[in-house]
Amino acid sequence: ADTIPGPLLDRMDLIRLDGYTEAEKTFIARRYLLPRQGEQAGLTADEVVVDDELIGAIISGYTREAGVRSLERALGRLVRKVTAKVATGTATPIEIRDEELNDWLGRPKVDDEIPERTSAPGIATGLAVTGVGGDVLFIETTAFPTGPDTEPGLTLTGQLGDVMKESAQIALNYVRSHADELGLDDASLRRRFHVHVPAGAVPKDGPSAGITMTTALVSLLTDRPVKSSVGMTGEITLQGQVLPIGGVKQKVLAAHRLGLTEVVLPKRNGPDLDDVPEYVRDQMTFHLAATYDEVAGAAF
């Protein structure tokens, strides 16, 4: 929508379609996708046994999307291989177990090891909305001493847009101006900082990574790792206020899908949690922050 001119956008009604939850995808696969792919492959319902746990393993390990197109393609590959075995005389019904999934579909395509990636100081887990729904964003920071060829300042990498670059500068300036409150000494701040956001080939923009960048810098400077169970999103100001952002439902669903159990959100986004399915809310802890002090209390 950012590319649509304002006067034209004002004459449109925006319809936002949120991504499906894992339970909804499993239901759709069981009710519609699997029967359709089985019929196209010439397979009857009593020739293959696929339980909901296996469908869940396919969703989490082989697809990452807001919809179900990739899931249907994966199920199509599965039933075609079953059809080939039936055609060569394998006894039916063929039951596919979770531990055999690699043999049927190959190794998993999606592998998010959040605890391993966030175990070192200087890394924080953010939440974002992409073309495939919600996703997790890792913010990595490092610092090195200044010298004749190195001036104090900030290096940014990861194909960041202008707004995200400004968020990183605001985060660093907030940390510098509140060094005493954060327990930092001036010497540690007189260095050059580098902020990187993998994956480097994917363009990223928006202000909602502000508190994540600030947390990554505080983690680096205090040598304390951020809790691996926490994801966060929110815009930060120079005074440390946490401002509201969009896409709360998609971001929370992404955090839940990837195993995060705590989410830090701006306090003014509290009402948006009503859009999140109740069973997801029951499994997660939400920290609503109005200032960065409250973010730090939940992050460390």
Summarize the structure.
It is built from 13 helices and eleven strands. It is of the alpha/beta class.
- Report the radius of gyration as a whole number of Å: 23 Å
Number of helices: 13
Number of strands: 11
Within the largest sheet, what's the order of strands? 3-4-6-5
Overall pLDDT, averaged?
A: 87
Label the structural class. alpha/beta
Question: Care to describe what's here?
Answer:
41% of the residues lie in helices and 18% in strands. It is built from 13 helices and eleven strands. It has helices at 6-9, 22-40, 52-62, 69-87, 101-105, 114-117, 162-177, 179-182, 186-189, 210-222, 248-257, 278-283, 292-299, and strands at 48-49, 94-95, 123-130, 133-145, 153-157, 191-196, 230-232, 235-236, 242-243, 262-266, 285-289. The strands form four sheets. The protein has a four-stranded mixed β-sheet with strand order 3-4-6-5. It has a three-stranded parallel β-sheet with strand order 7-10-11, sandwiched between helices. The chain has a two-stranded parallel ribbon with strand order 1-2. Strand 3 and strand 4 form a beta hairpin. The protein starts with 5 loop residues before the first helix and ends with a helix.
Topology readout:
Blueprint: H1 6-9, H2 22-40, E1 48-49, H3 52-62, H4 69-87, E2 94-95, H5 101-105, H6 114-117, E3 123-130, E4 133-145, E5 153-157, H7 162-177, H8 179-182, H9 186-189, E6 191-196, H10 210-222, E7 230-232, E8 235-236, E9 242-243, H11 248-257, E10 262-266, H12 278-283, E11 285-289, H13 292-299
Parallel strand pairs: 1-2, 5-6, 7-10, 10-11
Antiparallel strand pairs: 3-4, 4-6, 8-9
Helix pairs in contact: 2-3, 2-4, 3-4, 7-10
